Predict the structure.
Amino acid sequence: MPRNAPRTYYIQTYGCQMNERDSETIAGILQSRGMTPAIDINTADLIMVNTCTIRDKAEQKVYGLLGRFREMKEENPNLVLGICGCMPQQQKVAKHIKSRYPFMDIIIGTHNLNVLNTYLEQVLVERQQILDVWEERAEEELVLPALRSGHFKAFVNINWGCNNFCTYCIVPYVRGREKSRSPEVIVKEIEALARDGFKEITLLGQNVNSYGKDLSERPDFAQLLELVDSIDGIQRIRFMTSHPRDVADCLIDAMAKLPKVCQHLHLPLQSGSNHILEKMNRGYTSEHYLRIVEKLRLAIPDIALSTDLIVGFPGETEEDFQDTLSMVSQVRFDSAYTFIYSPRKGTPAASMEGQLESAIMKDRLQRLMKVQNQVSLSSNEGLMGTIQQLLVEECSQGVGKGRTTGNKLVFFKSDKDYSGQLVDVKITGAKTWSLTGELGDEG
Ligand code: SF4
């Protein structure tokens, strides 16, 4: 007996912007079947969990959710349950989910969202359980529908996978080797977004700087930025993530000369210690990193820099940690995502000697955050009295909210709704995580 076709869906997304973007594709595919979003997870006819495997905590949350699904499925046997993303992309994990959670209908990885409709038919008509994990991404994925989660800002994938094999990271094993989309397809997607009124594009990839290296007639990443900069209607371009080893001079030149490219670079440092950077297989030293920062600030004096930092990598001594604190003070990052090292099974770092005690790592994280917060505050205070252009994200109950070109969040009083517009504000207040401002006369 065929099952009732699901009418509403709920997507639970964990992890990075790449996953958020994939969830937009899932939503697009489900909407193309006539389905609509459910009010919440409890009322949905179909639930899809898009998973992340970077940290143990994210995985535990997913297993907690799968545990809850058992009861939900008993109450409603027609409920369709799916899981995708980086967790089931690992064959071992996919098989574990299939045997431990036999009520899951669809178990797929990161590479085969393009077949979701077919899987759904098999589940509904043939009442089959689907487990299908592909090693490579399908080309057809390039033209999949997507339901964008915002109205003014959109993510656009430019490449997938990673060739870097940092010793703590599972991504190259899960997402595979680097694969670039063709520039024509990227430009077409962004032109369509511009026609739909999108103003800001964030180009996404695990390592955007190596874009094009696998294409036969490649533009490199700097040339791709030029192509995107010339698209009418797009007003701002951001990108992430960049690898410090691959920040070429031509990229810095492109950032300096292209008017739509935002004055912000997210450049993960991870550690300030050369000894730890080598153990991480990051492929650069702290001196190299400082040279990039110098070039960037010479070319783009007001550039905002953000970073990722890991504390407690195996073998990290107090001296290594002090090197990280010293880099934070020298570079003066506008903001930083700080993490405690989390061992991932299957990565070289997980079996390295010198794994640190949790108390030491927590203490280092606290000390790092204290220093970074002071730096963030003083960087924000440096903007007091300046005029900043914001892309307004929303205005509600008399308060507008938008971001500067440096990606800083600014709140301002406003009686009118400027959502989706660029406005100038004078910065009048600074906190660690945000600024306040006043609209200019024209606002
Ligand atoms: S660059 Fe390193 S940390 Fe980033 S995705 Fe690749 S392997 Fe992981």
Q: What stands out?
A: The radius of gyration is 23 Å. The chain has three domains: 8-132, 141-381, 387-439. The CA atoms of residues 308 and 317 lie 19 Å apart.
